[in-house]
């Protein structure tokens, strides 16, 4: 599953081929570069290591500086491996720039990122609880509470993973089957329609849709 590292710039809107106005998220992938490769002979699997974003040498530790110097590539702030087939790996060389045209207009992609932090939140915001609908018979100041959380004699405790108030957000999620509306190769931008996780300037990872790939494999297996 080849992919790209990008930075979420923000949102805008574009007109599609039918003349409809489409809201899109702009993702900058202009500084993606191959900084390493994994081969079955040496590492028992095939992958391409991408770097993204510039960083000063003094911020890196000695191991990180040695990694980039050995590969003879510029220092990169973010590094991530993407699994590829042996045939796909042959088309990538260390030092090559990976551009936005890795994806095409209309393609479905999966986007992984860290969601926005929302602090300590109640059950209605965190878990979409409906809340108490009654305001009679002495009930007051209880409309946004979770209700009863435990039992009495058996088992006499609160079950683990009970949905309760707590810290909300700042967790890695993947949104699947988002549509690539436009690819700007000159500026290194990918415009995606859908809920891209993370705040503006957050780092995200784009991959081809895993469900589409599995669907094609199942069709090929049935034909075979």
Can you walk through the features of this model?
The strands form 3 sheets. The chain has a 6-stranded antiparallel β-barrel. The protein has a 3-stranded antiparallel sheet with strand order 3-4-5. It has a single domain, classed as Translation factors (Elongation Factor Tu (Ef-tu), domain 3), CATH 2.40.30. The longest helix has 14 residues, at 210-223. The two termini are 23 Å apart. It is globular. 17% of the residues lie in helices and 37% in strands. The mean pLDDT is 92. The protein is an alpha+beta fold and 224 residues long.
Quick description:
By secondary structure, the protein is of the alpha+beta class.
Short descriptors:
224 residues, three-stranded antiparallel β-sheet, Elongation Factor Tu (Ef-tu), domain 3, structural constituent of ribosome, 37% strand
CATH superfamily: Translation factors
End-to-end C-alpha gap = 23 Å
CATH class: Mainly Beta
- What name is given to the CATH topology? Elongation Factor Tu (Ef-tu), domain 3
Major β-sheet profile: 6 strands, antiparallel, barrel
Please give the order of strands in the largest beta sheet.
1-2-10-9-6-11
The number of distinct structural domains comes to 1
Keywords: Ribonucleoprotein, Ribosomal protein, RNA-binding, rRNA-binding
Function: One of the primary rRNA binding proteins, it binds directly near the 3'-end of the 23S rRNA, where it nucleates assembly of the 50S subunit.
GO molecular function: rRNA binding; structural constituent of ribosome
Family: Belongs to the universal ribosomal protein uL3 family.
């Amino acid at each position: 599953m080849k992919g790209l590292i990008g930075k979420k710039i923000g949102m805008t809107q574009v007109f599609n081929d039918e003349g409809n106005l489409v809201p899109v998220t702009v993702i900058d992938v202009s500084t993606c570069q191959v900084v390493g490769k994994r081969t079955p002979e040496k590492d028992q699997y095939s992958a391409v290591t991408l770097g993204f974003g510039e960083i000063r040498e003094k911020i890196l530790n000695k191991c990180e500086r040695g990694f980039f110097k050995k590969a003879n590539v510029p220092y990169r702030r973010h590094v991530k491996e993407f699994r590829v087939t042996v045939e796909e790996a042959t088309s990538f060389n260390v030092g090559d720039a990976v551009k936005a045209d890795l994806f095409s207009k209309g393609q479905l992609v999966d986007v992984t990122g860290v969601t926005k932090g929302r602090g300590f939140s109640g059950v209605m915001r965190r878990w979409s609880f409906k809340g108490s609908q009654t305001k009679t018979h002495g009930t007051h100041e209880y409309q946004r509470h979770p209700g009863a959380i435990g039992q009495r004699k058996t088992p006499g405790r609160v079950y683990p993973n009970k949905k309760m108030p707590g810290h909300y957000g700042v967790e890695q999620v993947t949104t699947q089957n988002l549509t690539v509306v436009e690819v700007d190769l000159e500026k290194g931008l990918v415009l995606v329609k859908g809920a891209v996780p993370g705040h503006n300037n957050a780092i995200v990872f784009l991959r081809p849709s895993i469900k589409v790939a599995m669907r094609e494999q199942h069709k090929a297996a049935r034909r075979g």
